[in-house]
């Protein structure tokens, strides 16, 4: 009912229901974006969740390459394939909730796509218990097994 100087009026109709909740916003950007692996044609990125979720659950991430969408995921890692070896790329990631998208977080630096260089390792366990002597300046030949990277060419 409403009341003023003219008197009491009839009650108003029932208003629609309103659900009260805290305000919601788009999330903050992921806190760290880094490259964790590369190959001749791909890169794998990893990031951490935003500090601020906007009051809603993070429902996914958008990965951008040169500021165009390269993929979407709900995980904290993503592999982009089909890249060209020895080309330089830049990547960034946005978080998403039901209120919208975060500002992008860029990877620390640009990335040149190439096969990682893995240093070979030698298994010397067969000779470490033996006493080996030689004259200074002389050549010595040791047979061993190589693993991991390419065999040395020297």
Automatic annotation (TrEMBL):
GO terms for molecular function: structural constituent of muscle. It holds the Pfam family fn3. Residues 26-116 form the Fibronectin type-III domain. The keyword Nuclease does not apply. SMART domains: FN3. GO terms for biological process: cardiac muscle tissue development; sarcomere organization. GO terms for cellular component: M band. Keywords: Immunoglobulin domain. The keyword RNA-binding does not apply. InterPro entries: FN3_dom, FN3_sf, Ig-like_fold. This is Fibronectin type-III domain-containing protein. It comes from Laticauda laticaudata (Blue-ringed sea krait).
């Amino acid at each position: 009912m409403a009341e003023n100087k003219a008197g009491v009026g009839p009650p108003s109709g029932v208003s629609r229901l309103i659900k009260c909740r805290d305000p919601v916003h788009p999330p903050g950007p992921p806190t760290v974006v880094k490259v964790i692996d590369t190959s001749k044609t791909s890169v794998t990125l990893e990031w951490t969740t935003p500090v601020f979720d906007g009051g809603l659950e993070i429902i996914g991430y958008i990965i951008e390459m040169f500021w165009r969408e390269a993929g979407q995921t709900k995980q904290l890692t993503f592999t982009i394939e089909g890249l060209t070896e020895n080309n330089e790329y830049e990547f960034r990631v946005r978080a998403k909730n039901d209120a919208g998208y975060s500002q992008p977080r860029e990877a620390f630096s640009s990335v040149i796509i190439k096969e990682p260089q893995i240093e070979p390792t030698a298994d010397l366990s067969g000779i470490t218990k033996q006493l080996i002597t030689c004259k200074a300046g002389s050549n010595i030949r040791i047979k061993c097994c190589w693993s991991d990277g390419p065999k040395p060419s020297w």
